[in-house]
Design brief:
Mean pLDDT: 74
Helix content: 25-40%
Strand content: 15-25%
Number of strands: 4
Shape: elongated
Distance between the termini: 69 Å
Length: 61
C-alpha cells in the first residue's frame, strides 16, 4: 500500500512539474493593454516591434 501511495505521489509531482513548464515556450502576451499615467502624460500600450514585444509606458503628451 505504501508503494502505491509513493508512486501516485511521484506521478502527481511529475504531472504538476510538466504543467508548470508547459507555458514557457508559448508566445508572450502583454499584461497591461491600458495603463494610468500622471497628468500631462499618455499611455502607450504594449506593441510588437520587429517580432519582439515592447512593454507599455507613459510618454509626455
Amino acid at each position: 500500500m505504501k508503494n502505491v501511495l509513493r508512486v501516485a505521489l511521484a506521478l502527481g509531482a511529475l504531472v504538476s512539474l510538466a504543467g508548470a513548464f508547459s507555458g514557457c515556450g508559448g508566445p508572450y502576451i502583454p499584461s497591461a493593454k491600458e495603463g494610468r499615467c500622471n497628468v500631462n502624460r499618455e499611455w502607450v500600450p504594449p506593441a510588437q516591434v520587429d517580432g519582439k514585444w515592447r512593454e507599455g509606458y507613459c510618454k509626455d503628451a
